[in-house]
Specification:
alpha/beta; Rossmann fold; 2 domains; eight-stranded mixed β-sheet; 42% helix; globular
Length: 340
């Protein structure tokens, strides 16, 4: 066989492999949903949202309203939510989420919001959705992650008619959560005792400034943070660092599913589980903990954004990012009859 022919065969094989891989990626990112961009009105400002309807059927469908965690977030959290939306669609539910204010061209600035502001925003989204003919107003639930733990209970207490509340990796007390997160991340990178002590002193200094209502200039002059928080972030933390969900959870009468990752570096899941059990009637509460799962209920080894393996799994098998059983747990819970 001539070298030209061998080269042609090799190139053809590479091209076929690339085309095959490209086709696989397209299939894996083709979720069984109809995603529609919407403008949610009725709140402090319009919200740029995505309504993900089941691929088939005219409805009316149940609805899961999504509440983001901390940070700038697009409606689908950079596609991270899409496998979850597909999961709820298979249970007969649409999903609604929105770009945080100031993100992706949305009006406003999410760092101007308090947790009550975020709860009011969520209530406005529920009211807006109830006006749509393709949404069943009697089958609306909540899904929220992390910082949403200070938002979901406020909404659910004011709306006991909600079908369910699904809380993922939620904390109870802002200050305790921050210390737990700091200690856990330091342990994860095997920090020395001296380094841990120094970081705790730095943190306590910032808390003293927050408790004193210090201005941003005073914070900059006194902090050891490297880099320091932005002015917007400092104001945001100042509005919210006293957040605690304990009293609100004690008033909750909505069926609740609490989902926790055993290897959560952000939230003390043992404390969260204990407080939820002490606060919510056992008949309304289901708790499930996933072994070797992260804060996001992603397999811990894959919850590393700079990892090539994580990137490849997200590209070629995005549903496989999540801990085994997580998506099934969501679908099965949503599909149960009311008052489960």
């Amino acid at each position: 066989m001539s070298w030209k022919r061998r080269t042609l065969i090799a190139v053809s094989c590479v091209v076929a492999l690339v085309l095959s891989a490209g086709g696989w990626v397209i299939v894996q990112h083709d979720f069984d949903i109809r995603a529609e961009r919407v403008t949610v009105t009725g709140g402090a400002q319009p919200l740029q949202g995505t309504l993900a309807l089941p691929e088939r059927g005219d409805g009316p469908f149940g609805l899961v309203v999504f509440v983001h965690g901390d940070g700038a977030a697009t409606a689908d959290r950079d596609e991270f939510y899409r496998p979850i939306w597909e999961t709820f669609a298979r249970a007969g539910y649409a999903s609604l989420a929105w770009d945080k204010p100031g993100v992706n061209g949305a009006p406003g600035n999410w760092l101007d919001q308090s947790m009550p502001d975020r709860a009011a925003e969520t209530e406005a989204a529920i009211a807006w959705a109830r006006g749509r003919p393709d949404i069943d107003a009697g089958r609306i639930g909540l899904w929220g992650i992390s910082q949403a733990g200070w938002v979901l209970p406020q909404v659910a207490v004011r709306h006991p008619e909600l079908r369910f509340m699904i809380a993922v990796g939620t904390a109870v007390n802002w200050i305790r959560q921050g210390e737990y997160n700091l200690r856990a991340e330091l342990r994860e990178r095997h920090a020395s005792d001296d380094e841990i002590a120094a970081e705790l002193r730095r943190r306590e200094n910032d808390l003293s400034l927050l408790r004193a209502g210090a201005s941003y200039d005073r914070y900059l002059a006194a902090t050891a943070d490297s880099p320091p928080m932005s002015a917007d972030r400092w104001r945001f933390v100042g509005k919210n660092f006293r957040s605690d969900a304990t009293e609100t959870l004690a008033q909750l009468r909505v069926p609740t599913l609490l989902l926790l990752g055993e290897h959560d570096l952000n939230v003390d899941v043992a404390e969260t589980a204990r407080v939820y059990r002490e606060s919510i009637p056992a008949s309304l509460l289901t708790i499930r903990t996933f072994p070797d799962a992260s804060h996001n209920i992603v397999t811990f080894d894959l919850d590393k954004p700079d990892s090539l393996r994580s990137f490849l799994v997200a590209l070629f098998a995005p549903r496989s990012l999540y801990a085994p059983g997580y998506l099934d747990a969501l679908r099965e819970y949503a599909a149960q009859p009311p008052n489960h």
